[in-house]
Amino acid sequence: MKHKNNQALFDYWNAIRAGRPAPRRGEIEPGDIRKILPYVFILERKDRDNYSFRLAGTGLCRTYGMEFRGHNLLSMWPDDCAENLKEALDHVAINATVSVVEYTAATNDGREVAFEMILLPLAHEDGSMTRVLGAAVPVDNFAWIGDRLLARQWIDRLRRLDPERMPKRAPQAETLARRILAEKPPVAIASIASHAARRPPLRSERSYLRLVKTGAASSEERG
């Protein structure tokens, strides 16, 4: 993971799950991750074509100038990207894998910003794997982010990771939570909510994808 906020969320999730496929929703304490909470979200898997936002941080909403709650994540992408993202989400929810998505969002005047999104399995209180914990953070720190409407986006690279094969670097959850709380919070972004009513949810006009499967899986690239 390129962004420290996504790495911190993974470390926290990994410590809380304590060797299980996924932690339960009720075990995630928002106060423990409040410094990175503005870009954190939770999805509910209603069916294979609908992963709806149960909640989304204020930083993410301000970056896009829209309220995400109740919105289907898959509708934000063109068909080819949505299909690959759908497959990745299914692996997260059904097989308890981790996905990292690198993507680019662009404004109508040609400005582009790189994002990194992490997707982590999260169990419902009844034990069913119907939730996805995630975060989407701008990798670039351009001053115009939040002032310009992001009109389209496309996936650059998508990786599926086996958490059991990832480096065992996470400390105990309590220690990790204290480290996260001590870090500087994300920079606040000015709201562009007034733009939200101007257009429907994002549909990218172009897409590029490189899909990388780790472990025993093979790698394939799509230009």
Features:
eight-stranded mixed sheet; 4 helices; 223 residues; disordered C terminus; alpha+beta
Please provide a written account of the structure.
The structure is a single chain. The protein is an alpha+beta fold. It is built from 4 helices and 8 strands. Strands 2-1-5-4-3-6-7-8 form an 8-stranded mixed β-sheet. The C terminus is likely disordered.
- Put simply, the count of helices is 4
Unreliably modeled segments: 185-201, 204-223
Strand content of the residues, in percent? Answer: 25-35%
Rg is 17 Å
- Biggest β-sheet: strands ordered side by side in the sheet: 2-1-5-4-3-6-7-8
The biggest beta sheet reads: 8 strands, mixed
Order of helices and strands: HEEHHEEEEHEE
What structural class do you assign from the helix and strand content? alpha+beta
Instruction: Give the distance, in angstroms, between the N- and C-terminal Cα atoms.
Output: 22 Å
Q: What average pLDDT do the residues reach?
A: 81
How would you summarize the topology of this molecule?
Layout: H1 4-17, E1 40-47, E2 50-56, H2 58-64, H3 79-95, E3 98-107, E4 112-122, E5 131-138, E6 150-161, H4 173-182, E7 209-213, E8 219-222
Parallel strand pairs: 6-7
Antiparallel strand pairs: 1-2, 1-5, 3-4, 3-6, 4-5, 7-8
Helix pairs in contact: 1-4
